[in-house]
Here is the input.
Amino acid sequence: MPPITFTSCPPPTATESMHLIPPTPETLAYSLTLPASAQSPAIARAATRTILRAHGLDDVMDAAVQVVSELASCACRFTPTAEVYVSLRYRDGALRVILYDGHARHTHPRLASACESRRRAALRVLACVVKACGGDWGFGDAREPGGGTRMWAVLPREGARAYV
Here is the structure.
């Protein structure tokens, strides 16, 4: 049997080193799929805290975690599917949070209106947080294949920084 030799790993090439960009607010772009379960809002909150810390956005933590929690809770409550999808992005001085769930819009106007009213009621706390931060939020048809509902919130960094 030949002897086993060990060598050290070669240093990264210039091309490989270019991909080792340290996290900054501008590089924040994460997506994850979670089970539509009671534990998922807690997982989404924990992931959000970790992501924001890694990207130097501790100053928006309180508002962002509350927004993610409210959207994840609503998505898990309304979806008839087994999963929900979370997206966090930082663009143009604002954190953008999107959640997709599998609950498609109703075609009957009264059912659609009742469902929208229930979803708005479930998102009352979210509305207050986003307003306090000077942001925007909403929901509507998903733009993804398979349909469903897309809920979103935009938190300007300056407003979220002042959120208490």
